[in-house]
Write a structure and sequence with these properties.
This protein is mainly beta and 595 residues long. The protein has five domains: 111 residues, Immunoglobulins (Immunoglobulin-like, Sandwich); 111 residues, Immunoglobulin-like (Sandwich), CATH 2.60.40; 100 residues, Sandwich (Immunoglobulin-like); 108 residues; 102 residues, Sandwich (Immunoglobulin-like), CATH 2.60.40. Helix content is 7%, strand content 37%. Strands 37, 38, 39, 40, 41, 42, 43, 44 and 45 form a nine-stranded antiparallel sheet that branches. A hairpin with an 8-residue loop joins strand 40 and strand 41. The longest helix is centred in the first third of the chain and has 24 residues. The chain is elongated. The N and C termini lie far apart (153 Å).
Length: 595
């Protein structure tokens, strides 16, 4: 009996377990969380060829099935991928959609994808499109089927406007603003930069061979000066001084080569005759410090004769040429238009070079209209009642000649008669009014020191002071403005801290020793110098007077000519050894020598 009582609890426990299992079998099963399935992608069309008018219209719709993630479907992430067919989405463009089961592309949006892929405009090509789904955190990604679409990108050009439909331009105001072109962006929605240029051509030529002005990346405006507008007129075939119409348009280029052209605007231009420039490339350039041989880009420029009768026709230069120099004349700094010839006759693009056989300073004159040239001695001298030569050109050379130290530069000293007229002249006869290349050029000005000179113009102002000896500089190094300078030449002093002479203070003009003038622009002095110090030359007893500095790199060599300059430079260095030296300053040759 006791044994049975002990078994009862065990039996009751077993009954309860069996009863509990039966109840569990009758309860609902626990939920199963699905991972989702790949979406199925479809499109509203398989061929898309939008036009510019479709830019803001939906041109293709994409939709897909629900991937059935176990989440709120409003948070499901979808990535629509677009790439060139066959590239396995290696360089795809993408669009992200959250929650929706469809999206659409406007014509301009689709165009931007296609331009990024490098598709050619107006050419049908194929793309692959697929969809990737995932949770919003990018987990559990599934990829759809791939659709193939035939697509055709379209041109999406700028809209161009001009500030002025008619302009009048003048040479005097060539640097002033004339017109501004503005335009809208091309290929709107395209993520990369677009490079713009402004093209132009004569009206009615339909841009068969347009000329182009570079603008740059992402720039939507271009202003042109009067000179630049004039250039567009002249290069479009409108002769200077005439009125004509020029057409303009904007060219837009993507990094992968898609090109679109804007609408065309027309501007009526009253043009002017521009300044033409001529240059002298030849075999002499490297040897004379004028750039590289036969290089128009570094060749010296000829002076333009500004007289109205020969404007843009007559050009000339005064220049030193070595023996057996050959050269040509070019219009502009290229060989596109060049002139050679023989016997005084120019021939465009001639195989015959112009030449000189003897070294010397030459005056070279050319006329691009008459196609004539003249080569003769390059010189300049004093003529007139105030000079020793009187009004007699045959008596000018060599007694009253100036020195020619550099291209288009003459320097001379002359003793003038007070209150009488004078000029400078480059030949031993008066000009005959022929305006020919071989005529004499005389020079004058109604202005004072530093004024512009006029060819065959008025006399220089009379010299009225009692200091009759003057230094005169004929300066045509600025070919746009040939000028003259005049200053007293009564004295020349050596100043500096390199003078070892009693009573001479360092850098003190009043106590500095004076040189002796021996004629023909030459000054001399014998003086004791300190070693390795500085000196310069001053044409007066106070600072502010005309002075000369070193143009030789501060050479301390003795017994050699050293170049000088009057535009400002370093001081001269005295010799390395102290002692007594003779200094010769030659203003005509623009040199100095220490012996």
């Amino acid at each position: 009996m006791k044994y049975i009582l002990k078994l009862l609890p065990v039996l009751m426990g077993m009954i309860l377990v069996i009863s509990g299992c039966d109840k569990l079998d009758k309860m609902d099963p626990l939920p199963v969380y699905q991972l989702g399935v790949s979406p199925v992608l479809s499109s509203s069309t398989t061929t898309v060829a939008p036009l510019l008018a479709d830019s803001n219209k939906a041109v293709v719709n994409f939709s897909w099935t629900n991937p059935h993630y176990s989440n709120d479907s409003a948070t499901t992430k979808y990535i629509l991928e677009i790439d060139t067919t066959g590239r396995n989405f290696a360089k795809e463009g993408t669009r992200i959609v959250i929650g929706n089961l469809s999206t659409s592309l406007t014509g301009r949006e689709l165009n931007a994808y296609l331009l990024t892929l490098g598709f050619k405009l107006n050419v049908a090509q194929t793309i692959d499109v697929r969809l990737m789904s995932s949770y919003n955190n990018n987990n559990e990604r599934y990829i759809s089927n791939v659709l193939k679409l035939t697509v055709t990108p379209f041109a999406d050009p700028s809209v161009l406007v001009t500030a002025n439909s008619a302009v009048t331009v003048t040479l005097a105001n060539a640097s002033q603003p004339s017109n501004t072109f503005s335009w809208t962006a091309s290929f709107k929605g395209f993520a990369d930069s677009v490079t713009y240029s402004l093209q132009y051509d004569s009206a009615g030529k339909n841009f068969v061979a347009p000329l182009e002005i570079a603008v740059g990346k992402s720039i939507l405006t271009k202003g042109l000066t009067q000179g630049e507008m004039n250039t567009t007129a002249l290069t479009s075939g409108i002769p200077g001084g005439n009125t004509g119409k020029v057409e303009y348009r904007v060219k837009a280029v993507t990094p992968l080569g898609a090109i679109a052209y804007s609408n065309v605007v027309t501007v009526t231009i009253q043009s002017y005759v521009p300044i033409l420039r001529m240059y002298l490339p030849g075999s002499y350039q490297a040897a004379t410090g004028n750039g590289s041989d036969w290089d128009p880009g570094s060749a010296p420029e000829l002076i333009r004769d500004l007289r109205s009768s020969v404007f843009n026709d007559m050009y000339y230069i005064y220049i030193y040429l070595p023996a057996n120099t050959e050269f040509k004349v070019t219009t502009g700094r290229t060989w596109d238009v060049n002139y050679g010839g023989t016997g005084g006759n120019l021939v465009q693009n001639s195989p015959n070079n112009l030449k000189v056989t003897t070294a010397g300073v030459y005056r070279i004159s050319v006329n691009r209209t008459t196609l004539k040239y003249d080569i003769r001695a390059g010189r300049m001298g004093f003529v007139g009642g105030a000079t020793g030569a009187g009004w007699n050109p045959p008596g000018v050379f060599p007694t009253y000649a100036m020195g020619a130290p550099a291209t288009n530069l003459f320097v001379g000293i002359n003793s003038f008669v007070a209150n009488d007229a004078w000029k400078l002249i480059d030949n031993d006869s008066w000009n005959n009014g022929s305006n020919a290349v071989d005529e004499t050029r005389s020079y004058g000005s109604t202005g004072g020191d530093g004024s512009t000179m006029e060819v065959n113009g008025a006399n220089f102002p009379n010299i009225t002071d009692a200091t009759s000896r003057k230094r005169v500089i004929w300066d045509g190094r600025d070919v746009n403005n040939i000028k003259y300078f005049i200053s007293p030449a009564t004295e020349m002093r050596v100043v500096g801290d390199g003078i070892n002479q009693a009573g001479v203070n360092d850098w003190d003009p009043p106590t500095s020793p004076q040189m002796t003038y021996t004629g023909n622009g030459i000054w001399t002095i014998t003086i004791t110098l300190k070693a390795g110090k500085d000196i310069k030359f001053l044409a007066g007893n106070a600072w502010g007077a005309f002075d000369y500095e070193d143009n030789s790199g501060q050479s301390q060599a003795t017994g050699v000519d050293k170049k000088i300059k009057w535009e400002g430079g370093d001081n001269f260095k005295t010799p390395a050894t102290a002692g007594t030296y003779t200094i010769t300053l030659n203003e005509n040759n623009q040199t100095m020598k220490i012996n």
